[in-house]
C-alpha cells in the first residue's frame, strides 16, 4: 500500500539540505575516511561542509548555473562526495561517469547531456576526457580533484580558494532546491546497448533512503560504518553507499579498489556493507577452496559449523544434538564462524546484496556462518531500490516486499511494474524511451517476476534476456548460468541459444582450478592452451554435466566454448556492478557459438 507521507524529515527538501542539517548536528565527528599512506584519516562533518560550500561557490564563479549539467569522473573518494554535493548546492545536476568508460563512451555522454564542465580525478582520466571532448560539444571548464592541475584543467585548491573569496553563503541557495528538482543524471550500465541518462530527483533519492533506513532500524543501528567500494557512478552505491549513510549519520570509509578490498575490510571494520552477488560468490569459492586444502579435522570443523548453522535456522537437522550441542556451538563459533566474520572486519551486522540475483546456496552459506545477507531488487530508474528482505522476516529466494510508499504489480507477460515517488523523471533527451518506460504512471521495468501472498517479489529474468528455443520452450539464461558458476571449476558463464535447438555457453574456468590443473599435468596455465587440451576440456565438461543435473531438459547446456580471457569491467564484458553484458560477449564469441551448432570442433565444443 502506498503511503501518503514522505518517510524522511520534512525539512529535508533536497540532498544538500539533508547533508547540511546532519553536518550541523554532528559537527566535529568523523565522516569521510580515506587512506593516507598506510592509515585511514578522516574528514569531519564540519570540514566536509566547509569544502562543499567553497567548491559550490567556485563552480558558480565559473558560470555554473541552476539546471546546468556537470560531469563527475573519478574513483570513490571523499572529494567525489564533496563534488557531488557542491554541484547540487550550486543548483546544477551531477552527471557521474564510470572511470572504466572509454573515450567513445565519454563522447556519448558529452553529446547526450552536454555538460557545462567536468570535475575529473587523475591526469590519465583527464587526457581521456579531453580526447572525447575534442569530438563533442565543448566544455567550459575541466577541474581536477587531485592536488595539482593537469593539461587543460584547474586545480581543486584554486577552485575552492576562488569560492571562498566569493561573497555570501552558498547554503542560502538551499531554499531554491525542492524535492522535484533533478539531482543527477545517472546513466544505465549499458548491458543491452548504449547507456541512457536517468533523471533522478532529490525527493526520489531521499524517499529511497528513508525506506532503507526503516528496514535497518530492525538491527538497532548506531555508530554505523560503511565501506564504499562499488562505483559511486552507479545508482546503487550512489544512493545506498553515499546518501543513506549521510541520512543515518554514519561514517564512510573509501576502499582503495577491489584489489585491496580484503585488506580494507580489516582496516575499516564496517558494520554495514552494500555488495553485489559476484563478490559474495567469489568470497565463498575462496573459502571453500581453502577448506578443501585443509587437514581432515579442519574440514570436519568447517562442515559441522555449516551444518549446525543451517540447522539453527530451521533448514536442516544437524548431525549432533542433545547435551553436546551447546558447548559444540561455542567451540565452532570461536574456531570457525569468528574467523569468517574476521575476514569482514569482525563488526559486520548486515550485507545488502543487489544488482543481480544471489543464489540461495550463497545466501545460506554466509547466513549459517554468522554473516547475515539480505537481498533486494532495484533499477536505476527507481532511485534505485524497490524491494528488500527485512532483517527479521527474510524469505530466501525472494527479493522482499516493496519499500514504504512504493507499489509493485505484475503486468502483461509477467512484467514487474513500479509506481511511487522514487520513480525517475525520465530519460534525459529521450522522450521516446521515456514514453515506453513510463506508461499510465507505472514504470515498466523489463523484468519478469512474481509476487507471493505476502507481497515478496521474485525475479525470473529480463524480458529481453529470455531465450526462446526453436521448439518453443522459454528458458531463463540466468538459471543455467547460476548452476554453472556453482561448480568449483567454473568462474563465469554466458548462456546462448535464442531460436536455436538447445543451449550452449561461453565458460571462464576458475583461475585457481586452472593453476592447479596445469601444475599437476605439466601444462602452461593459459586459457588458450588449455581450451585445446582434451583432458582439461573433459574435466570442464564434467562440471557442466553436474550443473545440468539440477536443470530441466530445455535449460541444460549441451556444448560449450572456453573464453579467451575472464569477463571484466575493463574489457567491457561486465557492467560496473559485475553483470554480464550479453551483447558484448555475443559480438566477441558469436562465430564460436554458432560453430557449436554446426559440428565444428572449437575449444571445448563437446556434447554433455
Question: Can you put this structure into words, describing what you see?
Answer:
With 608 residues, this protein is α/β, with parallel strands linked by helices. Strands 15, 16, 18, 19 and 20 form a 5-stranded antiparallel β-sheet that branches. Strands 2-1-10-9 form a 4-stranded mixed β-sheet, with helices on both faces. A hairpin with a 2-residue loop joins strand 1 and strand 2. Helix 2 packs across helix 6. The protein starts with 14 loop residues before the first helix and ends in a 13-residue tail after the last helix. The protein has 3 domains: 15-201, Rossmann fold (3-Layer(aba) Sandwich); 277-346 and 348-462, Rossmann fold (3-Layer(aba) Sandwich); 467-595, GMP Synthetase, Chain A, domain 3 (2-Layer Sandwich). The protein contains 19 helices and 25 strands.
Amino acid at each position: 500500500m502506498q503511503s501518503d507521507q514522505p518517510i524522511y524529515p520534512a525539512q529535508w527538501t533536497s540532498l544538500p539540505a539533508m547533508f547540511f542539517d546532519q553536518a550541523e548536528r554532528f559537527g566535529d565527528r568523523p565522516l569521510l575516511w580515506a587512506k593516507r599512506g598506510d592509515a585511514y584519516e578522516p574528514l569531519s562533518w564540519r570540514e566536509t561542509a566547509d569544502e562543499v560550500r567553497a567548491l559550490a561557490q567556485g563552480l558558480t564563479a565559473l558560470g555554473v548555473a541552476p539546471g546546468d549539467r556537470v560531469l563527475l569522473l573519478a574513483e570513490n573518494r571523499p572529494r567525489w562526495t564533496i563534488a557531488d554535493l557542491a554541484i547540487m548546492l550550486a543548483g546544477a545536476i551531477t552527471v557521474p561517469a564510470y572511470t572504466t568508460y572509454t573515450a567513445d563512451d565519454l563522447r556519448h555522454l558529452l553529446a547526450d547531456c552536454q555538460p557545462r564542465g567536468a570535475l575529473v580525478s587523475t591526469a590519465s582520466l583527464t587526457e581521456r576526457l579531453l580526447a572525447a571532448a575534442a569530438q563533442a560539444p565543448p566544455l567550459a571548464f575541466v577541474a581536477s580533484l587531485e592536488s595539482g592541475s593537469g593539461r587543460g584543467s584547474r586545480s581543486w585548491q584554486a577552485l575552492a580558494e576562488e569560492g571562498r573569496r566569493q561573497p555570501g553563503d552558498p547554503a542560502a541557495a538551499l531554499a531554491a532546491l525542492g524535492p522535484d528538482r533533478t539531482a543527477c543524471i545517472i546513466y544505465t550500465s549499458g548491458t543491452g546497448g548504449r547507456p541512457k541518462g536517468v533523471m533522478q530527483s532529490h525527493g526520489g533519492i531521499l524517499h529511497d533512503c528513508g525506506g532503507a533506513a526503516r528496514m535497518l532500524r530492525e538491527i538497532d543501528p548506531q555508530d554505523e560504518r560503511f565501506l564504499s567500494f562499488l562505483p559511486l557512478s552507479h545508482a546503487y552505491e550512489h544512493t545506498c553507499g553515499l546518501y543513506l549513510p549521510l541520512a543515518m549519520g554514519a561514517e564512510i570509509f573509501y576502499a582503495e579498489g577491489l584489489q585491496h578490498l580484503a585488506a580494507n575490510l580489516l582496516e575499516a571494520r564496517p558494520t554495514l556493507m552494500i555488495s553485489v552477488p559476484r563478490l559474495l560468490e567469489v568470497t565463498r569459492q575462496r573459502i571453500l577452496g581453502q577448506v578443501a586444502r585443509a587437514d581432515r579435522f579442519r574440514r570436519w570443523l568447517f562442515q559441522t559449523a555449516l551444518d549446525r548453522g543451517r540447522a539453527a535456522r530451521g533448514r536442516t537437522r544437524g548431525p549432533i544434538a542433545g547435551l553436546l550441542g551447546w558447548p559444540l556451538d561455542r567451540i565452532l563459533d570461536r574456531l570457525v564462524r569468528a574467523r569468517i566474520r574476521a575476514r569482514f572486519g569482525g563488526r559486520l551486522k548486515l550485507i545488502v546484496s543487489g544488482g543481480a540475483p544471489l543464489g540461495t546456496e550463497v545466501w545460506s552459506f554466509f547466513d549459517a556462518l554468522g554473516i547475515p545477507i539480505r537481498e533486494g531488487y532495484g533499477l536505476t530508474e527507481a532511485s534505485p531500490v524497490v524491494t528488500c528482505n527485512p532483517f527479521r522476516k527474510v524469505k530466501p529466494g525472494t527479493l522482499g516486499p516493496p519499500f514504504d510508499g512504493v507499489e509493485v504489480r505484475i503486468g502483461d507477460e509477467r512484467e514487474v511494474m513500479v509506481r511511487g515517488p522514487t520513480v525517475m523523471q525520465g530519460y534525459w533527451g529521450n522522450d521516446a524511451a521515456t514514453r515506453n518506460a513510463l506508461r499510465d504512471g507505472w514504470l515498466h521495468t523489463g523484468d519478469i517476476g512474481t509476487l507471493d501472498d505476502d507481497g515478496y517479489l521474485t525475479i525470473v529474468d529480463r524480458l529481453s534476456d529470455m531465450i526462446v528455443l526453436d521448439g518453443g520452450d522459454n528458458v531463463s539464461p540466468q538459471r543455467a548460468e547460476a548452476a554453472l558458476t556453482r561448480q568449483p571449476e567454473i568462474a563465469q558463464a554466458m548462456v546462448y541459444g535464442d531460436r536455436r535447438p538447445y543451449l550452449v555457453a561461453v565458460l571462464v574456468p576458475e583461475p585457481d582450478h586452472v593453476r592447479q590443473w596445469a601444475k599437476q599435468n605439466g601444462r602452461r596455465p593459459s586459457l588458450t592452451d588449455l581450451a585445446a587440451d582434451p583432458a582439461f576440456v573433459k574435466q570442464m565438461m564434467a562440471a557442466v554435466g553436474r550443473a545440468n543435473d539440477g536443470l530441466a531438459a530445455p535449460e541444460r547446456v549441451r556444448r560449450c566454448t572456453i573464453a579467451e580471457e575472464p569477463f571484466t569491467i575493463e574489457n567491457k564484458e561486465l557492467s560496473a556492478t559485475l553483470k554480464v553484458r550479453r551483447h558484448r560477449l555475443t559480438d566477441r564469441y558469436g562465430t564460436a557459438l554458432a560453430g557449436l551448432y554446426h559440428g565444428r570442433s572449437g575449444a571445448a565444443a563437446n556434447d554433455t
